[in-house]
Amino acid sequence: MASIFHYMKRLRAVSGTALYVNLFGMVVSSFLDSVSILLLIPLLSLIGIVSMDMGAGYFSWISDVLDNIPPTTALLIILGAYIAIMFGQSLVQRHVAVQSVALQQKFGKALRLETYQALLAASWPFFLKKRSSDLINLLTIELARVLGAVSLFLQLTASIVFTLIQIGLAFWLSPGLTLFVLASGIVLGLFSRRFIKRAKRLGSQTSKLSQSYLAGITDQLNGIKDVKSNTLERSRLRWLDGLTDGMAAEQLAYIRLRSSSQLIYKMSSAVLIAVFLFISYKLFHTQSLQLLTITAIFARLWPRFTSIQSNLEQLASMAPACKGLLRLQEDCRQAAERLEAPGGDAVSPMRVEQGIDCVNVSFRYNKNDSALTLQNIHLHIPANRMTAIAGPSGAGKSTLIDLVMGMIRPEDGQLRIDGQPVGEENLLAYRKSISYVAQDPFLFNASIRENLLLIKPDATEEEMWEALEFAASSDFVRKLPQGLDTVIGDRGIRLSGGERQRIVLARAVIRKPAILVLDEATSALDTENEKKIQEAIDRLKGKMTIIVVAHRLSTIRHADQVIVIDQGKLVERGDYRQLAADPTSLLGHLIHSQAEEIA
Ligand SMILES: Nc1ncnc2c1ncn2[C@@H]1O[C@H](COP(=O)(O)OP(=O)(O)OP(=O)(O)O)[C@@H](O)[C@H]1O
């Protein structure tokens, strides 16, 4: 429950005094509701059902007042008071209901924003460790459950406030009977603790099942081509069949639990009312007027006990979601990159005058691994030149690029730009100076224009076509039905692999970055388009620092410097032609192997 209290504190912080005004509204509404019950007494007396004299003590003053007024006037006064109280109560209740939703919405917005902001501020290694479907599950389903828990908590508070006021009233009318009902409530409350514990266990199961469901569905839809081409449809359906059986069983167990607790409360309420009436008649010798009023109060109070119990069970089932979201926020905070300006818009990109240096850097993904992924790499990437990184598969090329881009931090050694270490104070400016084209290029499900504008919001039409021209994609974009405004589908699915790669390249160069990083960026291109891009990249030489990871080694012939990595170590560095000509070099060997593959 500690996690629920955490979110209640956040609700208080987000809503400020509005929360207290709302709680006060709840108290007023409950109070007016109670007063309306008290009006029953003079009303019943006037109608002649009971005599005012029977309620000696508590109501004698009402009797005194009414005795001096003609009966019709008295009836009109009481009915008028009743209407005024019910109007007042309805208005307050309406205001409270609207305000509660407004508060929940405000809190929902704040919670979504703060969670997403924390997530965006987390460093790249955090995302390497987490499954994206788990993050989506927390940000959608579990976050909605947290909002549900907060709204339930508010309802619970209202129920408790109402109950306390009614108990106060009942106590005033008959302390003995009230204590009896309270004691019964406490006994039932203690008994129902196991229901709450079980609801919490079922809530954890709900969280796990929804996590598995989302993870499985995301995986399968991402790999739908593999599912279909390998005819895995039946096995995938079997997976969902098993999972939905689990979900149904869990939901049934939860409903069984809730109905059992409600059943016990209802049955015990029948017994309690019978015992209550018997005791009040036999032991307390309660007057009929008092008995009527107390019965009216308890008839409204007992369902509140039941709803408090039901709210507690629901809250317990939502507690694991609160815990999960809280853990995510905490993990994000621990993995946060302290970038200079929140939002980062005011920071200008860094200029690179001399170059980038990796000074004896080492790195491993998992601190428990004995082997280092990168070992003691010492290298200089000169500014405005083209540096190519080559090496066998799994050698550590992409890892080195991530390190050079400041996405991961070295375990040992230092990354320096123009001799200055890259740290928290200049990381954002450094990142802003880099454009990156990944091995598996990503495009947003929007038009080509929107994808380009996302990177450079003020790009002119001319700049967009210039970038597309550079990336050898202007011809095919012109031929698309809506040209620049063609929507390219989820992750750019409506484009071929090569077209996607070229649009991503255009997007990377449109903001004229100081550093352009291409990780196997031309792997999906045919020879003709690769040649065009190669020529374009060659034209960029001298204008920006280019770092290329190349699988097809023929594409790095024009690099100013080639770095060869093997098993996380820098094994060769130099001019392409020199290294390629050396029969003992690893680069020479790799080129030879590729030539044989092609032959
Ligand atoms: N997120 C990760 N967690 C753990 N190990 C990783 C992770 N990413 C990569 N590795 C490991 O680090 C090593 C280097 O991987 P890297 O992707 O840098 O190689 P690469 O040279 O780019 O390979 P390729 O040419 O096949 O893309 C590999 O052994 C790989 O299994």
UniProtKB/TrEMBL annotation:
<keyword id="KW-0547">Nucleotide-binding</keyword>
<dbReference type="InterPro" id="IPR011527">
    <property type="entry name" value="ABC1_TM_dom"/>
</dbReference>
<feature type="transmembrane region" description="Helical">
    <location>
        <begin position="171"/>
        <end position="191"/>
    </location>
</feature>
<dbReference type="InterPro" id="IPR003439">
    <property type="entry name" value="ABC_transporter-like_ATP-bd"/>
</dbReference>
<keyword id="KW-0472">Membrane</keyword>
<feature type="transmembrane region" description="Helical">
    <location>
        <begin position="21"/>
        <end position="49"/>
    </location>
</feature>
<feature type="transmembrane region" description="Helical">
    <location>
        <begin position="69"/>
        <end position="87"/>
    </location>
</feature>
<dbReference type="InterPro" id="IPR039421">
    <property type="entry name" value="Type_1_exporter"/>
</dbReference>
<keyword id="KW-1133">Transmembrane helix</keyword>
<dbReference type="Pfam" id="PF00005">
    <property type="entry name" value="ABC_tran"/>
</dbReference>
<keyword id="KW-0067">ATP-binding</keyword>
<dbReference type="GO" id="GO:0005886">
    <property type="term" value="C:plasma membrane"/>
</dbReference>
<feature type="transmembrane region" description="Helical">
    <location>
        <begin position="146"/>
        <end position="165"/>
    </location>
</feature>
<dbReference type="GO" id="GO:0016887">
    <property type="term" value="F:ATP hydrolysis activity"/>
</dbReference>
<dbReference type="InterPro" id="IPR003593">
    <property type="entry name" value="AAA+_ATPase"/>
</dbReference>
<keyword id="KW-0812">Transmembrane</keyword>
<dbReference type="InterPro" id="IPR036640">
    <property type="entry name" value="ABC1_TM_sf"/>
</dbReference>
<dbReference type="GO" id="GO:0005524">
    <property type="term" value="F:ATP binding"/>
</dbReference>
<protein>
    <submittedName>
        <fullName>ABC transporter ATP-binding protein</fullName>
    </submittedName>
</protein>
<dbReference type="InterPro" id="IPR027417">
    <property type="entry name" value="P-loop_NTPase"/>
</dbReference>
<feature type="transmembrane region" description="Helical">
    <location>
        <begin position="263"/>
        <end position="284"/>
    </location>
</feature>
<dbReference type="GO" id="GO:0140359">
    <property type="term" value="F:ABC-type transporter activity"/>
</dbReference>
<feature type="domain" description="ABC transporter">
    <location>
        <begin position="356"/>
        <end position="592"/>
    </location>
</feature>
<dbReference type="GO" id="GO:0034040">
    <property type="term" value="F:ATPase-coupled lipid transmembrane transporter activity"/>
</dbReference>
<comment type="similarity">
    <text>Belongs to the ABC transporter superfamily.</text>
</comment>
<dbReference type="Pfam" id="PF00664">
    <property type="entry name" value="ABC_membrane"/>
</dbReference>
<dbReference type="InterPro" id="IPR017871">
    <property type="entry name" value="ABC_transporter-like_CS"/>
</dbReference>
<feature type="domain" description="ABC transmembrane type-1">
    <location>
        <begin position="39"/>
        <end position="299"/>
    </location>
</feature>
